[in-house]
């Protein structure tokens, strides 16, 4: 309990409220303390507790101080709880309700329920760690990780020393890396600033620099969408590599399949998913014999230009009619396609009015649309 | 002027890379710190395989290859679990596939690789449940209601309508609709012979399936 600091409870600029819950009691480790009825608020940066009876009594912990969290199910006469394990308090921490505590964890008891949703949101914030990217005022400490000289729970001195050395070495490497990354960012920013004075060619070249430094494409003037020289070349390469595999698979492949196929073949200097997507987006503009297509469901595929999915629908209708009705899995097996693409074809056929669906707990089954054919 | 700075930077980077390439590949902790640090500064080292970071440090290849392995495991097991798998099981299966001499892969590594895979429009999703995550690998519509029920089911591997009504305070109809959707998507199985009322099991959460091998046939079906 000595990690909490007193606060006004007002959110800082750039600090956003995520969720709040009434009826929460705090425990110091396993002990009940006087803070038995309050509203618990989760923001992008802190966990805040405010007494329901006395609103002046308000305290907070920065999310960066949380090591991990656990759930404790409700029992007979007991509310569900979240256990929050914490890093030791910073030596220069602002004052709070307790000067010291023998416990390194607190429990939050949800007397008016709400524990499940709160836990889910807290887990998400712990994963996303938005407080690291969104600066707020100094009063919210965002120091990460354990402080020097922290007390360890177990000790075997020799092993500890080795681990400590390794940690120091890693920290040194990280600070070197940090310098490099910060330098790359400042260079990228300088390039962005020069945007106004440069030509089309230079724009493309600078976009490449930015991309290669890991900064997402910010440039507005574009000839070929979000692509760069690299992606143009890649698009042409892909057209060469994918021609035969596409023909072998009926003219269509999901982008996932393409990603695996291409990267397995390369062995090294692999493509990132974004590289692949950006290159594929340029296929049509570059008049290559393949194209990228996005279905309503969000599934992305590469098709041969010569492939006409709408015509395949006609043959799909024949297949379904022969069998009376088919699920995606059955159709996939019959035709020799992946289930993912089989489903997309049947959905397209339905969209075009050729098939009807029967959606039950036994699955999604497609029938020929007799309203169309038997009018 | 600009190109001089870039050249200097490139030289520094090459030096840095040759020093730390091994560590990046071998040390999951270093990878986590490196990624977090880049994120703070607003740089994504995995954005492109052609980038300084991915090429020089080899960070890219590590994650992009992991992406391929993740896709293959998910496809191979999809018919068993409907396209939903715990991070633990995914981790175990990926490690098995990598073999004895492969580099150590952490759960954090998997999560980062999966986040990248979202760009492929595959329907990859990461759902927090209990103290872990469920990885979704098919484009099934899962809204907050579905997610909350999955989280409820995480404790026992199954859930019932009564449990949902008691814990979440929902009407019967709302609970039934969510469960029906999970059944339709193949994410849940209906057990009418359970004691009391019907149990809705989530194969993704069956702990005793963890150690089961992916069969040769499943591996073949994964990528035709």
UniProtKB/TrEMBL annotation, chain B:
Among the Pfam families in the record, one is EAP30
Where in or outside the cell is it found?
Cytoplasm
Swiss-Prot/TrEMBL GO biological process terms? protein transport to vacuole involved in ubiquitin-dependent protein catabolic process via the multivesicular body sorting pathway
Give a GO cellular-component term: ESCRT II complex
Keywords on record: Coiled coil, Cytoplasm, Protein transport, Transport
Main localization of the protein described in the UniProt heading: cytoplasm
Q: What Gene3D superfamilies would the database entry show?
A: 6.10.140.180, Winged helix-like DNA-binding domain superfamily/Winged helix DNA-binding domain
Family membership, please give it.
Answer: Belongs to the SNF8 family.
PANTHER family cross-referenced by the UniProt entry: EAP30 SUBUNIT OF ELL COMPLEX, VACUOLAR-SORTING PROTEIN SNF8
What is the name listed in the Swiss-Prot or TrEMBL entry for this protein?
Answer: Vacuolar-sorting protein SNF8
